[in-house]
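user: can you give me the structure for this one chain? tokens are fine.
assistant: on it. calling the predictor now.
[tool input]
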Amino acid sequence: MSHTAHIRSRRKPRPSVSTIARRAGVAGGVLGSLAVAGASGSANAAETVTQTIELPALTADLAAQVAQSADATQQAAANYELQAERDAAAAKAAEQAKSDLAEAKKKAEAARKAEAARKKAAASRSAERTTLAASSSTASAPSASSSNVSGSAAAVIAFARAQIGDAYVLGATGPDSWDCSSLMQAAFKQAGISLPRVSQDQSTVGTPVLLSNLQPGDILHWGSAGSAYHTALYVGDGKFVGAENPSTGIVEKPLSWDPPTGAVRVL
């Protein structure tokens, strides 16, 4: 026995075949796991790609939704604008109706006042006629009659009566048609008296006389002196001759038929 036989050797023992096989199996298992992991990673990568391919479809849907939302917004804006126009039109119509109502009330008030004024004027004229008729009926009858008239008055009356039946034409001066003042002017011309042409002036010539003290040949007038609108000739017996209107022409009527306002005397 060698003197070194009892000393343990420091060399590592060589692995046995079984050990090598075991280690190879472990390594294979690790590599297999890595391969599986790699395959899984590849699969996951493939699935990621597949999901990425679906994104355009989602983007198209989103675009459609955005477009629908834009359309809805535009329609809402149009509806608001239409409603605003309707509200403005309604407000304008209401304002116009208010203005029309105020104008109608104003016209109605003016018409009411005009009607009241007309009725008042009519009542005043009626009262004036009643007063004149009453004064004419209660006054003493004129003392002179046409039967004993002579001289200038007779000539004037004869001319006026000779025109009875002629037509009344405003502005006419004879010989077959007259107006009230032209008949008076032509009649007094027979007595050599020149009268003014119009009624207003004829009502101021000579001397004013009371209707209760008339004499044949006096000039009667309707309306105030200086603003008379009609004249005629008193012929006695409570009657007058005058060119009255287009309907009657030249006629002889009693004073009560149309009571005069006043009278003047030029003869």
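assistant: here you go. The first helix runs from residue 17 to 138. Strands lie at 167-168, 177-178, 207-209, 219-222, 230-236, 239-245, 249-254, 262-265.
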